[in-house]
Specification:
The structure is a homodimer of 315-residue chains. Chain A has 315 residues and is of the alpha/beta class. The first copy, chain A, folds into two domains: 208 residues, Rossmann fold; 91 residues, Rossmann fold. In chain A, the strands form two sheets. Chain A has a six-stranded mixed sheet with strand order 1-2-10-7-8-9, sandwiched between helices. In chain A, strands 5-4-3-6 form a four-stranded parallel sheet, sandwiched between helices. In chain A, helix 3 packs across helix 8, helix 9 packs across helix 11 and helix 12 packs across helix 13. The longest helix of chain A has 17 residues. The first copy, chain A, is globular and about 55 Å long. Chains A and B meet through helix 12 of A and helix 12 of B.
Amino acid sequence: MAFKVTQSDIQAAHEKIQPFIHRTPVLTCQSINEMVGAELFFKCENFQKIGAFKARGGINAVLSLPEEARSKGVVTHSSGNHAQAIALAAKMAGVPAYIVMPKTAPEVKKKAVAGYGAQITLCEPTQQSREENSARIQEETGATFISPYNDYAVITGQATCAKELIEDQPDLDIIIAPVGGGGLLAGSALSALYYNPEMTVYAGEPEGAKDTYLSMEAGTITKVEKPSSIADGLLASMGDKNFEIIKELVKDIFLVSDEEIVAAMRIIWERMKIIIEPSCAVPFAAILKNKDVFAGKKVGVILTGGNVDLAKLPF
Amino acid sequence: MAFKVTQSDIQAAHEKIQPFIHRTPVLTCQSINEMVGAELFFKCENFQKIGAFKARGGINAVLSLPEEARSKGVVTHSSGNHAQAIALAAKMAGVPAYIVMPKTAPEVKKKAVAGYGAQITLCEPTQQSREENSARIQEETGATFISPYNDYAVITGQATCAKELIEDQPDLDIIIAPVGGGGLLAGSALSALYYNPEMTVYAGEPEGAKDTYLSMEAGTITKVEKPSSIADGLLASMGDKNFEIIKELVKDIFLVSDEEIVAAMRIIWERMKIIIEPSCAVPFAAILKNKDVFAGKKVGVILTGGNVDLAKLPF
């Protein structure tokens, strides 16, 4: 099957965004490897600009807009990291950014978005309220809507993360990412296909927001009413552009509970001394829960972000 | 003045311990540089084995013991990181480790020491109780006492940290470390002298444990009664072997309050997404408090460790 995002699209996006992003390190941890019985290679996007991989997709999407559209600004809705990504990208491009954020988003994320000079509109923490608010702003301002995930330029930008991981560690057997709306997972699966087609792609998903799991079972997009999880970055519903890639290329979705997410997050904080947000701990929680799948393998784990509210830690 | 620890001692120690330690990364952070008005290069010993620089001195001290002494084991007292270092070094050498820890030491540190198979004796959180307990164990077992800091092999091991930092960043104007007992500071000052003598050496110290500050003013070791600070790794009193180096080579000691330490720690957690313990935030707190001293300079900052008790965070 041919996908709308090609290998040369990913190559071109990587060249375009490279001056604006960090090439994040790949870390390993002996005591975690011993605990799991596998070799894990953590791609540390918590050290990325804005503290999350979303800088990649956001910057690629804004820089890919035609000049005229870009000058009217960009609008999006996001629980936080995509919001920061679009705010940063718009600031770089010198255009206005209008950001719709659920009022439940962590304070640290709201503050960061405001710090980039974006205009914030707070909404109810539902998909409907997010979409209504951004549609209204789009109409009022003429700004272009940039989906947090259901957008080929965003998917292409996110794909550069797995591309770098494969370049640094070409002999991986497996790559695993978390899944919310599906932008990172679709991008990672495409980079796996183009740069290391032998590799198996898995995802971790919170039990309370298991729309991807259900969609894979049903073969068609299946929503979850009122998704809820401590992994606040993974509550969005799967996009159709993402699902057409994911259903072909991703082997399995592993579900994990909030308790398992917090336990996994705590192990990474304590053993690796790095700060990751709950959403980011989901793939590692999935590995801990399914050790037999990963035993003896070289596993690339995408650590997606580190934007936690230190005043509201789950420990 | 000639010092008892020479450049070739540091070179030899580095070769001896290299197979057992990590060469830790040097990280930078643009937003922190903008905040301070200087270029900071953070030497991340929070990523070191046992989560702290003390692995260097501990391993060097144990490996430097004559065979016969080593076989009877080693004993020490420490609020935590040196304890882990000696426990790890003894485990590597296959000899017993007897560790005296104040009962107030963080749980995470006690657990880690026990995990290396060391025998723990809990004591009162005073210098006297620490020393009495380790003297008794020394007598009972014939084990060799290894001071957390007042020991040339320990100082020489700690010196390898600044040596690596200078190798990676040869054009530093300043190096700053925290000071407790003085092992790291003395070692850092010696590496500065031998590997980049143009560099100025400073230290940060908690106001509640300012014995080094007072000792520098008086020109002789001056103790503080009942030292107290959130920086639990810096409560020990300056050793005479350390002070003979520090009084010659360190330009100034900057005092910081517990409040300033927590604020500095929080900035590093939020901006750099790495976990550091309160003691480790002391030099950065000193920089934030004395921006004029550091303005426009290239500053090496030793981040000493990341062993915090997540159940007892100060945020």
